[in-house]
Amino acid sequence: MYPVSIAIDGPAGAGKSTVARMVAKRLNFLYVDTGAMYRTVAYLCIAHSVDATNSQAIIQMLNQHDVTFQMSDDGFKALVDDVDVSVQLRDPKVSAHVSTVAAHHEVRSRLTTWQRTFAKTQSVVMDGRDIGTVVLPDATIKIFLTADVEERARRRQREFCKNGHDVPLEEIIQAVAERDARDSSREIAPLKAAGDAIQIDSTGKSAERVVDEILSLVEDAHVG
Ligand code: CDP
Ligand code: CDP
């Protein structure tokens, strides 16, 4: 039987990573966090003072480092020269740079090739912005997960709060909306729902409820 692929796309804070990880665990599929891959490139730009608008410099930088991704019980891990940088990827500085880095054709092409390799030999749940449209256009099931921007920002605010940072909601709404606008308006692989994606609005829903909705779609498709 061919590997099964579940693509989950949507804007920041819609709950993609949380539900993708839970669905993958329930089905015993590999979870691939493509946002973490773009964040790793943004993190490297910041760490090595590489201009995020210069695609050639970014590719040159990537060629100089050993970048690998691993799935573990703690989630999707990014290793740079054998050092786990996963925690640094959630830094607000990385969030502010990542959509600039992700707009370059050369960067996307390299990461897309990597992402497709994961899905070639094993069943995956992959989340991002262009999984159903570009990375895996033949994915078995495509979900476009949304939630209203205020709720998405509140979710992020709770995360910041857990980590001891008190950030005003308005500031988060603005940052999230700006990143969504950049992701949706870029020329290459913009954030948008695939024509055959199933839309799920997670506003007011727990992650568990969204997971159940996705698992019932998997059951209906007789692929799980
Ligand atoms: O977790 P959050 O929704 O905030 O973002 P993420 O999934 O970690 O993705 C970070 C950024 O990477 C996005 O805002 C996009 O700019 C970029 N990205 C992308 O362009 N294509 C993907 N398939 C995944 C992420
Ligand atoms: O990956 P994405 O940016 O779409 O969102 P996430 O990182 O999975 O979720 C952002 C936050 O919202 C996390 O702290 C989740 O626990 C929380 N969440 C939620 O409150 N309700 C949901 N239905 C899904 C996620």
TrEMBL record:
Residues engaged in binding ATP: 10-18
Gene3D superfamilies reported in the protein's UniProt record: P-loop containing nucleotide triphosphate hydrolases
Subcellular location as annotated: Cytoplasm
Sections of the chain in a coiled coil: none
GO molecular function, one term: kinase activity
Domain Cytidylate kinase: start-end pairs: 6-219
Keyword Signal among record annotations: no
InterPro entries the UniProt entry points to: Cytidylate_kin, Cytidylate_kinase_dom, P-loop_NTPase
Main location: cytoplasm
EC numbers for this chain: 2.7.4.25
Keyword field: ATP-binding, Cytoplasm, Kinase, Nucleotide-binding, Transferase
Domain of life: Bacteria
Catalytic activity: dCMP + ATP = dCDP + ADP; CMP + ATP = CDP + ADP
Pfam families associated with the record: Cytidylate_kin
CDD domains recorded: CMPK
Family: Belongs to the cytidylate kinase family. Type 1 subfamily.
Identification of the protein by name: Cytidylate kinase
Lineage, top ranks: Bacteria, Bacillati, Bacillota, Bacilli, Bacillales
Gene name tied to this protein: cmk
